[in-house]
C-alpha cells in the first residue's frame, strides 16, 4: 500500500519537469528566431544600400556613354570634312602640275601623312598610321630633291617612334571583351552542401541521473540542433551566394566588363584596369574554381589586363608643317 502511494506521488513531479523543459526550450527558441530575424533585417538593409550604389554607378556610366557618343559623332564629322578637303587638294594638284611627277609624289606623301595623323588622333589606330607612314616614305625614297631631306628625316623619326610603342589592336581586344561579356551567364556557382549527416539527426537519450537543470539544457540543445545548423568550413572554401543574390552578382559583372569596353574605346587606362581587376576578383571569389568556364574566364581577363591602352602622345604636326614650308618655297616666284 505504501509503495503504491509513492509511485503516484512521483508522476506529477515528472510532468512538471517536462513542462519546465518545454518552457525553457520555447524561450530559447523564440530568442534564436528573433536573433535570426534581426540579422536578416540588417543584411536586407545592406543589400538595399548596395543596390542603390550600383544604380548610381550605372546612371553615371550611361551619362558618360552618351557624352562619348556625341564626341564620336563630332569627330566623325570633322574627319569627313578633312577628307573632302584632301580630295579637293589632290584634284587641284592634278590640274595644276601638268605632268610634274616630282611635285605629284610630294603631294601624295603629304596626303598619306595627313591620313596617318587622322588615324592617330581620331581612331587611335597605330597599326594603320605606321602603314601609311611607310607608304609615304616609299613614295619619296627615289626623289633627288635636296629640299626633301628634312621631310624624309622627319618621316623616319615619326615611324621609328611609333614602332617603338607597344601596339594594341583595339578592335580585336574589344571583340574579345564582348565575347567574355556573353560568357558571364554560363559561369557556374559552387555547389551548396545541404545534406545533413545522419549523426546530426540522431538524438542522444538523456541520462536519468542528471539534475533537472542540466537535463533541460541538454533537451534544449538537441531541439536547437534540429533547427539551427552550424557548419565549419576551411579558409579555402568559397562563400556561398544566396539564390536571390546570384542575379545581382551576374549583372554587376556585366557592368564591369562593359565599363572596361568603354574605357578601351576612350583609352582610359585607369578605368580599364580597375574594371577588369574588380571582375577578376569577383570571378575568383564567388564562382566554382574547378570549372573549365571559370578557369577560361580568369585566364582571358588576366590576358586583357596586360594590354597597354594609354593614349598615343605622338602627332605628325611638325612633319606636316615641313610639307607646307616645302610647297611655299617651291611655289615662290623666281
Helix amount, in percent? Answer: over 70%
- Reading the helices and strands in chain order gives HHHHHHHHHHH
Helix-strand makeup class: mainly alpha
Poorly predicted tracts of residues: 1-11, 193-200, 234-238
Quick one: biggest sheet? none
Helical stretch tally? 11
Strand content: under 5%
Task: Please describe what this structure looks like.
With 334 residues, the chain is mainly α. Among the domains are: 63-167 and 317-328, no CATH class; 169-193 and 241-306. 75% of the residues lie in helices and 0% in strands. Helix 4 runs antiparallel to helix 11. The longest helix has 96 residues, at 2-97. The protein is rod-shaped. The N and C termini lie far apart (150 Å).
Feature tags:
single chain; 334 residues; mainly alpha; disordered N terminus
How is the topology of this model organized?
Blueprint: H1 2-97, H2 101-123, H3 126-140, H4 149-164, H5 170-183, H6 198-201, H7 212-225, H8 243-266, H9 269-286, H10 292-305, H11 317-330
Helix pairs in contact: 1-2, 1-7, 1-8, 2-3, 2-11, 3-4, 4-11, 5-8, 5-10, 8-9, 9-10
Quick structural gist:
The chain is mainly α. It has helices at 2-97, 101-123, 126-140, 149-164, 170-183, 198-201, 212-225, 243-266, 269-286, 292-305, 317-330. Helix 2 packs antiparallel against helix 11.
Amino acid at each position: 500500500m505504501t509503495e503504491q502511494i509513492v509511485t503516484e506521488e512521483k508522476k506529477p513531479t515528472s510532468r512538471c519537469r517536462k513542462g519546465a523543459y518545454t518552457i525553457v526550450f520555447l524561450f530559447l527558441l523564440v530568442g534564436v528566431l528573433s536573433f535570426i530575424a534581426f540579422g536578416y533585417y540588417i543584411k536586407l538593409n545592406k543589400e538595399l544600400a548596395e543596390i542603390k550604389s550600383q544604380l548610381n554607378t550605372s546612371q553615371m556610366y550611361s551619362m558618360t556613354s552618351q557624352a562619348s557618343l556625341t564626341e564620336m559623332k563630332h569627330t566623325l564629322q570633322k574627319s569627313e570634312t578633312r577628307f573632302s578637303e584632301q580630295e579637293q587638294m589632290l584634284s587641284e594638284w592634278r590640274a595644276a602640275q601638268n605632268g610634274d611627277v616630282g611635285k605629284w609624289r610630294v603631294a601624295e606623301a603629304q596626303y598619306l601623312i595627313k591620313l596617318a595623323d587622322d588615324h592617330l588622333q581620331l581612331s587611335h589606330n597605330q597599326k594603320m598610321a605606321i602603314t601609311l607612314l611607310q607608304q609615304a616614305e616609299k613614295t619619296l625614297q627615289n626623289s633627288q630633291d635636296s629640299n626633301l631631306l628634312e621631310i624624309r628625316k622627319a618621316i623616319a623619326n615619326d615611324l621609328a617612334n611609333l614602332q617603338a610603342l607597344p601596339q594594341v589592336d583595339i578592335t580585336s581586344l574589344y571583340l574579345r571583351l564582348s565575347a567574355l561579356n556573353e560568357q558571364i551567364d554560363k559561369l557556374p556557382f559552387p555547389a551548396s552542401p545541404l545534406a545533413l549527416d545522419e549523426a546530426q539527426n540522431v538524438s542522444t537519450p538523456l541520462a536519468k541521473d542528471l539534475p533537472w537543470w542540466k537535463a533541460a539544457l541538454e533537451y534544449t540543445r538537441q531541439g536547437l540542433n534540429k533547427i539551427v545548423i552550424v557548419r565549419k568550413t576551411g579558409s579555402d572554401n568559397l562563400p556561398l551566394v544566396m539564390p536571390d543574390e546570384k542575379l545581382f552578382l551576374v549583372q554587376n559583372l556585366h557592368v564591369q566588363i562593359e565599363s572596361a569596353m568603354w574605357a578601351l574605346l576612350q583609352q582610359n587606362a585607369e578605368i580599364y584596369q580597375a574594371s577588369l581587376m574588380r571582375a577578376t576578383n569577383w570571378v575568383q571569389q564567388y564562382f566554382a574554381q574547378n570549372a573549365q568556364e571559370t578557369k577560361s574566364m580568369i585566364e582571358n581577363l588576366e590576358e586583357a589586363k596586360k594590354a597597354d591602352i594609354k593614349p598615343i602622345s605622338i602627332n605628325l604636326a611638325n612633319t606636316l608643317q615641313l610639307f607646307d614650308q616645302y610647297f611655299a618655297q617651291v611655289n615662290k616666284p623666281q
